[in-house]
Amino acid sequence: MFIDSHCHLDFPDLASNLDELLHKMSEHRVTHALCVSVNLEDFPRVLALAENHDNLFASVGVHPDYENLQEPDASQLVQLADHPKVIAIGETGLDYYRLEGDLEWQRERFRQHIRAAKQCGKPLIIHTRSAADDTLRIMREEGADQIGGVMHCFTESWEVAQQAIDMNFYISFSGIVTFKNATALKDVAKKTPLERMLIETDSPYLAPVPHRGKLNQPAFVSHVAEEIARLRTADLDEIAATTTRNFFRLFKSAIAHTTAP
Fold first, then answer.
1. What is the tens place of the pLDDT at every residue in 170-213?
2. E strands along the chain, which residues?
3. pLDDT in tens, 73-129
4. Is the predicted pLDDT of residue 148 greater than 80, yes or no?
5. What are the Cα distances from residue 151, in Å, to 76, 107, 109, 144?
6. pLDDT score recorded for residue 260
7. Order of strands across the sheet with 197-199?
8. What domains appear along the chain, each with residue ranges and CATH number?
9. For labelling alongside 112, which of 65, 89, 142, 252 has CA 20 to 30 A away?
10. Closest CA to 188 of 219, 156, 215
11. What is the mean pLDDT of residues 2-19?
């Protein structure tokens, strides 16, 4: 069985077709999915999905791309995370790809999330794009290794992956690893210790081959696992079982709501 460790089922393109998506998950042996928050305004929608479906979980956080909205502080995040179906803080991190100028607000937001995770004892979901050095620096400065988490939709170098793993983080691969031109990322997928690996869709984005260009969905996470198995010359069932165990090992509070392998 497979678990989609990162998706956005509350986004309109997916929420409008939720019953079918859940059915497709079942058909493709995707037993659970983590619905990830990107801002506090829409967090109630994310939480409602987790409350209404036994096999869905939620996170709480504010994505680094979102400007000019309610800035969370650590105490507020801790309060919102005090729910049995909220199993992580995030997604959070740094993204210098789309935004320019003084981005100190982004770095301070990231610090607040790390502090909240340490206070509430729930792991971090970290997004980093064109900002690896600062992301790793702040993780070290704030002691992110004390709580751990996952580097989601990983696209950085093996050296960055190693540093994150050394700080008690997992590396999560999305549909990007199936893209023909993702040579460097495929190499990271070969080198990452299997016991430190997760799989995800980041749906509705980044649909894997053979669905590239289409609307992504949690059922497609099996294609990510298939590509990793191919790259590592490994058995698909081994990739499925290990990434599933890794999910419950990282997101320990999820175990209370399911029978973990």
1. 999 999 999 999 999 999 999 999 999 999 999 999 999 999 99
2. 2-7, 30-35, 56-60, 86-95, 124-129, 149-151, 169-173, 197-199
3. 999 999 999 999 999 999 999 999 988 788 999 999 999 999 999 999 999 999 999
4. yes
5. 23, 16, 17, 12
6. 46
7. 2-7, 30-35, 56-60, 86-95, 124-129, 149-151, 169-173, 197-199
8. 2-255 (3.20.20.140)
9. 252
10. 156
11. 97
Please tell me what DSSP assigns to residue 203.
Answer: B
Cβ distance 55 to 31 under 8 Å?
yes
Q: Which residues pair with 69 in a beta bridge?
A: none
**How many angstroms separate the CA atoms of 137 and 29, rounded?**
38
Contacts (Cβ under 8 Å, ≥6 apart) of 133:
none
Do residues 126 and 84 make contact, with C-beta atoms less than 8 angstroms apart? Answer: no
Q: Which residues pair with 172 in a beta bridge?
A: 198
Contacts of 20 (CB under 8 A, 6+ apart): none
pLDDT of residue 259: 52
